[in-house]
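R.M. (postdoc): so does anyone remember the format we settled on? I'll just put the structure tokens first.
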């Protein structure tokens, strides 16, 4: 029997079968899927074959169909292992809030680099529009202009007041979309607003830290009534970019990628080389300083190779 993994809690996987039934499954044997160590061999979004157990209630995952793509994360502090967040994605949304909790430009850039590395189109959704003061709205415009210039579509919504959600619905139709971001930015609230009848648990922001409380604890996929799927995920605290080569990094910033071919040296690192088109653009204010700062910061990360 074929199925789609829609939920992953660690040892159990929820698999949606062609007959629209969800069967709790375990894994049979070992799946060697990638040449890096991952904590989970199967992820939400995977297409699998399953066999029913004698009880006819639960099942075994016996085969993993090849993935179109996947996205991996590694926590900055934790082990050398990586976790597959989800597989077979058409796009990734990063939900961003400027306050309660604050999402930094550095965090946004790390997310975008990760999405570029795995070839997954990314879009930025600024949430909690209802909380913005006039000053906040100015900062929002500044942020949006940074990312639109870099080539990333930006949207602003209020999940609670259901403002501007029609634009989001248009983006989602018939696509598999990952919803990511810090804890407390409103990922589950947004999904609830888009899926009437779903009552995903949402959580308050902590008073003292202004951060979310990690209400969602595992990834789960939901079918949209108008076609497509949304994947809710646990909040990410920090994002360590995983398995990226320093030489490759420039290409993961679309605006730097466009400039690179004009650098004097083909192996320019864009740090202090003469005739560097990237440094030139920075000086002429054609490249956003915060984006370049993120480039340098990721370049100097221990996680990048080379
Ligand atoms: N004012 C306002 N509050 C919102 C909005 N969207 C979500 N919230 C609130 O923000 C808090 C966190 O929302 P959640 O949906 O649980 O956040 P999450 O991103 O799913 O968080 P984790 O599951 O912990 O990763 C809740 O108190 C929501 O009511 C919004 O548009 N405006
Ligand atoms: Mg949540
Ligand atoms: Zn250069």
């Amino acid at each position: 029997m074929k199925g789609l993994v829609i939920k992953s809690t660690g040892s159990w996987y929820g698999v949606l079968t062609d007959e629209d039934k969800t069967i709790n499954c375990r894994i049979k044997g070992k799946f060697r899927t990638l040449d890096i160590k991952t904590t989970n061999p199967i992820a939400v979004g995977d297409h699998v074959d399953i066999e029913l157990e004698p009880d006819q209630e639960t099942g075994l995952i016996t085969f993993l169909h090849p993935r179109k793509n996947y996205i991996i994360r590694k926590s900055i502090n934790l082990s050398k292992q990586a976790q597959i967040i989800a597989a077979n994605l058409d796009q990734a949304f990063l939900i961003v809030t400027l306050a309660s909790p604050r999402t930094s430009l550095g965090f946004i850039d790390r997310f975008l680099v990760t999405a570029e590395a795995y070839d997954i189109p990314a879009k930025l959704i600024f949430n909690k529009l209802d909380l913005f003061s006039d000053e906040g709205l100015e900062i929002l415009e500044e942020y949006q202009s940074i990312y639109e210039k870099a080539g990333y579509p930006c949207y602003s919504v209020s999940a609670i007041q259901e403002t501007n959600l029609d634009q989001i619905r248009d983006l989602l139709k018939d696509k598999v979309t990952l919803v990511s971001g810090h804890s407390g930015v409103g990922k589950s609230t947004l999904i609830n607003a888009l899926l009437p009848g779903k009552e995903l648990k949402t959580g308050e922001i902590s008073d003292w830290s202004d951060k979310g409380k990690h209400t969602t604890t595992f990834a789960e996929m939901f079918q949209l009534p108008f076609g497509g799927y949304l994947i809710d995920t646990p909040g990410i605290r920090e994002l360590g970019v995983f398995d990226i080569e320093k030489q490759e990094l420039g290409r993961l910033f679309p605006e730097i990628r466009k400039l690179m071919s004009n650098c004097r040296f083909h192996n320019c690192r864009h740090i202090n080389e003469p005739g560097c088109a990237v440094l030139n653009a920075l000086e002429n204010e054609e490249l956003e300083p915060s984006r370049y700062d993120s480039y340098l910061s990721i370049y100097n990360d221990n996680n990048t190779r080379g």
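R.M.: ...and that's the designed sequence above, right after the tokens. Also worth knowing: The helical segments are 105-117, 134-150, 165-172, 187-194, 246-249, 254-260, 277-283, 289-299. The radius of gyration is 20 Å.
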